[in-house]
From TrEMBL:
Localisation per UniProt entry: Cytoplasm
EC numbers for this chain: 6.1.1.9
Domain named Aminoacyl-tRNA synthetase class Ia: residues: 38-657
Protein biosynthesis as UniProt keyword: yes
Motif 'KMSKS' region, residue numbers: 580-584
Residue ranges of coiled coil: 923-985
Protein name: Valine--tRNA ligase
Provenance organism: Psychrobacter saeujeotis
Pfam families: Anticodon_1, tRNA-synt_1, Val_tRNA-synt_C
EC category name: ligase
Residue span, Methionyl/Valyl/Leucyl/Isoleucyl-tRNA synthetase anticodon-binding domain: 705-858
Valyl-tRNA synthetase tRNA-binding arm domain span: 921-983
Listed PROSITE patterns: AA_TRNA_LIGASE_I
Length: 985
């Protein structure tokens, strides 16, 4: 029995609480009003800061966004994923830390600042290094604030008290520590190698900073004559024809290569040719790299200006000749290196008229000279991949230069083992293969960049002796190497690759290099639990973090520590047509614009403001006006976040469609309106609180209550499982299905029918209100990690009605746990039957165009004893929801009036036609339904007639198909009889 003391219909405080709740939840959901000030309140309350009092810990290091402007949709996507995971684990009882920070972004940031200065008439080279760096810091403060504000707008519950920047003192100290230790271990060295070189910024680039663009070019075919004038090819020519897309590199050729199995040139291997213009005599070598069926099968080899030629040159001990300076102009005297160990090259005089020419001017001049002198065979149009700097678009040159390198082979071994033995898991698993493919074919890592912005390399030079010293600062250099104060030292001007400092991110942000830091932070939150990242930087960032961390961070027993236990790899965010979002395509969306909304003119201005080509700008403007004629409405943060997580199927790129955001904005409305409805059903017409139980009393529950509690706990179980599997798309589906389809569309309607039924006892009604509120409050908590704002707003009004508000915020409320005792497959099966029963009546009503106001007489034929028992329990709900006027069971042998019917298994649901239904229309409807059922039956018959299916499929599957066919045949027989009756009228 329900305890009368729990009934609070006379409780003034409860009445006031409900009235206040209804007042707070205004008639319409407005995300702007809901979100205003809420995040700041969370942050000020310290909810995002970690604790150290739990048994289990969970931590994520935010992949640091570059301080170069603003966040894009990719940031919005991975922030939604990370925050959902973080909020879930915080509520689930773990010590939880989401570590935030930003990256200094080396060349990207320097380029932005240089452009800003140039707009003011200033150039970097006209400033001191210190003055320029000061300007960059000014920009960082401006841009960094913008980015952190955007992260806040996305609702990301990072611990801002621990915010880090890769150029902070703490992280800089970690970088120096790592560099010095690697150098002392013999794993960092300075050497001459071929690198990607940006002539505009005059710096080495990583592969990730180079983009290959499909462009139209030319393929020039040149004649290279044999040094021995008596020597000829098989077809009698005294020259070989080689083809190239970069004619100017002819100046640095040191060989011509052919395939060793190419019989056309076998007699020429070991002979020489004399290069045009330079007169240099170079050998003809054989190498498997050359493809016999490409062009003439002869390839010019320029080891100092092509990566493939560089490797071939190493195999054949060819000299390297550098023809370019740092601006990609032809050197006055070309530098000849017999090998990579040679520090000082010999010089070869540059041919007349080429010295000082810009590379493309030299190309034009050389082609013209070849034509005039008769050694240009032909020129053909050619589609090529042009390597351009990601920042600035300059054509990148492979260039021979002295740089600092990490010898990665020793570091790679443990990093491979950690993934092989399962210490680090990739989700989805196929990315393990991508990781392994990269790690087993590593080249030494070029870590130096010729920039002013970044971590300056902690190396000092004694120009008088040529010695290089590495230490944390100049004072340590002198102590470490026993140098007197009169030895003049010069610090290396280069800075480190951005990936070097970000490779230390998981442990450097946790104060690894700070001896005065709280040791609990590193001990509790490292290794981090999961890294959420895109597949495109698995090698450039993920692999390097694994290598660095395993080398430097140790467990108490001295064993290496991994940086994270799981790598969750997500896809790229593309537009609705599957196209990559880019400014040049004009299809970029700003996540903040989707949250706040943006009018059409502002959107057009935003998409075209940086367009240099007026035609491109006009095209994008036209496209934007067509796609968004009224601009973009304000969807709010929760709808956007739910869209992201609903699309987060592991590893796949997502096509972002605004209709999805609109649909989930409607979902927010649904939750809001359902909450108002529940609250309104807790007060009478005068606004006084109706009886609401404060605890569960299953003794008075009927099928709807048992069912919704079972589904609630089944959903909680599924959600926990899907969070553990990083299936955020399934978590979103679990939440959506439960709240919209089960709670709102079914239980709330069933509860409404009972609450409005005078025959239902007050005791049961008090329990129904409890269940309504309990399920809503629980659903708000399990939805919170994805929809933080809406759930907080409603939870603050609902939780007090059940005395559940033992915390100040849903952020730190307990995440719902599964009560297995509440889960009943039988109850869920019974309810599924009731839903089918109601749906059958609704289908008849809809197909016969009977309005909802018409209450229908319903007959049930072929009902089983179990179904009669079920019906007795839910008769009132069935009649109320299906709007049934009368309900009768047709017994065997009873005459059945001509009726419109629908089948629920073997049960026949009938609505007598007399006075309601047009016989002709009903016959047409039945004929259509009969045809549909017959197709289903025929399909199953064919399947069961297929010996391959019957012999290979599990026995239970075959039996299920047989039962389904028997059921369909019974329905067809019944329907055929009804159709005959209609035809006889």
């Amino acid at each position: 029995m329900s305890n009368p003391e729990n009934h609070t219909n006379t409780n003034t405080n409860l009445t006031q609480s409900i009235q206040a709740a209804l007042s707070q939840l205004e008639n319409a959901y407005n995300p702007k009003d809901v979100e205003a000030g809420m995040y700041q309140s969370w942050e000020n309350s310290g909810y995002f800061q970690p604790t150290f009092d739990k048994d289990e810990s969970f931590s994520i290091a935010l992949p640091p966004p570059n301080v170069t402007g603003s966040l894009h949709m990719g940031h919005g996507f991975n922030n939604a994923i990370m925050d959902a995971l973080t909020r879930f684990h915080r509520m689930d009882g773990d010590n939880t830390l989401w570590q935030p920070g930003t990256d200094h972004a080396g060349i990207a940031t320097q380029m932005v600042v240089e452009r800003r200065l140039e707009a003011q008439g200033l150039k970097r080279r006209d400033m001191t290094r210190a003055d320029f760096v000061d300007k960059v810091w000014e920009w960082k403060e401006e841009s960094g604030d913008n980015i952190t504000n955007q992260i806040r707008r996305l609702g990301s519950s990072v611990d801002w008290s621990r915010e880090r920047f890769t150029m902070d003192d703490g992280l800089s100290n970690a970088v120096k520590e790592v560099f010095v230790r690697l150098f002392d271990d013999g794993l960092i060295y300075r050497g001459k190698r071929l690198v990607n070189w940006d002539p505009k910024f005059q710096t080495a680039l990583s592969d990730l900073e180079v983009e290959n663009h499909d462009e139209k070019g030319s393929l020039w075919h040149f004649r290279y004559h044999f040094t021995d004038t008596e020597l000829t090819t098989q077809d009698g020519k005294n020259y070989l024809v080689v083809a190239t897309t970069r004619p100017e590199t002819l100046l640095g050729d040191t060989a011509v290569a052919v395939n060793p199995s190419d019989e056309r040139y076998a007699h020429l291997v070991g002979k020489t040719i004399t290069l045009p213009i330079t007169g240099r005599v170079v050998p003809i070598v054989a190498d498997d790299y050359v493809e016999s069926d490409f062009g003439t099968g002869c390839v010019k080899i320029t080891p100092a200006h092509d990566f493939n030629d560089y490797e071939l040159g190493r195999r054949h001990s060819l000299p390297l000749i550098n023809i370019l300076d740092e601006r990609a102009n032809i050197l006055p005297a070309m530098e000849v290196y017999p090998d990579l160990q040679t520090r000082e090259p010999t010089l070869e005089t540059t041919p007349k008229d080429y010295a000082g020419l810009e590379r493309f001017a030299a190309r034009k001049f050389l082609v013209a000279q070849a034509g005039e002198q008769g050694w240009l065979e032909e020129v053909e149009d050619y589609a090529l991949k042009a390597p351009r700097a990601e920042r600035g678009g300059t054509i990148v040159e492979p260039w021979l230069t002295d740089q600092w390198y990490v010898a990665v082979k020793k570091l790679a071994g443990p990093a491979i083992d950690a993934v092989e033995d399962g210490s680090i898991e990739f989700v989805p698993a196929q990315y393990k293969n991508m990781y392994m493919a990269w790690m087993t074919d590593l080249q030494d890592w070029c870590i130096s960049r010729q920039l002013w912005w970044g971590h300056r390399i902690p190396a000092w030079y004694d120009d008088a002796t040529g010695e290089i010293y590495v230490a944390r600062d100049e004072s340590e250099v002198r102590t470490k190497y026993n140098l007197s104060d009169d030895v003049k030292l010069r610090q290396d001007d280069d800075v480190l690759d951005t990936w070097f400092s970000s490779g230390l991110w998981t442990f450097s942000t946790l104060d690894w290099a700070d001896p005065n830091a709280d040791p609990r932070v590193l001990e509790t939150f490292h290794p981090t639990s999961v890294l959420v990242t895109g597949f495109d930087i698995i090698f450039f960032w993920v692999a390097r973090m694994i290598m660095m961390t395993l080398h430097f961070v140790k467990n108490e027993d001295g064993t290496p520590q991994v940086p994270f236990k799981t790598v969750y790899v997500h896809g790229l965010v593309r537009d609705g047509n599957g196209q990559k979002m880019s400014k040049s395509k004009g299809n970029v969306l700003d996540p903040i614009d989707l949250i706040d909304g943006i009018d059409l003119e502002a959107l057009v201005e935003k998409r075209t403001s940086n367009m240099m080509n007026p035609k491109d700008a006009a095209k994008i403007e036209k496209q934007t006006r067509k796609e968004f004629p009224e601009g973009i409405p304000a969807y709010g943060t929760d709808a956007l976040r739910f869209t992201f997580t609903s699309l987060a199927s592991t590893g796949r790129d997502i096509n972002f469609d605004l209709k999805r955001v609109e649909g989930y904005r409607n979902f927010c409305n649904k939750i809001w309106n359902a909450s108002r409805f529940v609250l309104m059903n807790c007060v009478d017409s005068e606004g006084s609180a109706k009886p609401i139980d404060q605890t569960a009393n299953p003794d008075v529950w009927e099928l709807p209550e048992k069912w919704i509690m079972s589904r609630l706990n089944s959903s909680i179980k599924d959600i926990h499982q899907h969070f553990a599997q990083y299936r955020l798309d399934m978590v979103s589906q679990d939440i959506y299905e439960f709240i919209w389809n089960e709670y709102c569309d079914w239980y709330v309607e069933l509860a409404k029918a009972s609450l409005n039924d005078d025959s239902v006892s007050d005791e049961r009604k008090a329990q129904i209100r409890y269940v309504l509120l309990h399920v809503l409050e629980t659903a708000l908590r399990f939805t919170h990690p994805i929809m933080p704002y809406l759930t907080e707003e409603i939870w603050q009004t609902v939780a007090p009605l059940l005395n559940r508000k033992n915390t100040d915020s849903i952020v730190i409320a307990d995440y719902p746990q599964t009560d297995n005792a509440q889960i009943s497959k039988q109850v869920e099966s019974d309810m599924a039957w009731l839903q089918e029963l109601i749906a059958s009546v609704r289908n008849i009503r809809g197909e016969m165009k009977l309005g909802n106001a018409v209450r229908l007489p319903v007959l049930l034929q072929n009902i089983s004893h179990d179904e009669e028992a079920r019906l007795a329990r839910i008769k009132n709900q069935f009649k109320a929801l299906a709007k049934v006027e009368s309900l009768e069971i047709v017994k065997e042998g009873d005459e059945v009036p001509l009726s419109s019917s629908s089948m629920v298994g073997q049960l026949r649901v009938l609505v007598p036609m007399k006075g309601l239904i047009d016989p002709t229309a009903e016959l047409k409807r039945l004929d259509k339904s009969y045809e549909k059922l017959q197709k289903q039956a025929d399909g199953i018959s064919r399947k069961l007639g297929n010996e391959g299916f019957v012999s290979k499929a599990p026995v239970e599957v075959v039996e299920a198909e047989k039962v389904k066919l028997e059921e369909l045949e019974g329905q067809l027989k019944t329907m055929a009889g009804q159709m005959e009756e209609l035809k006889a009228l």
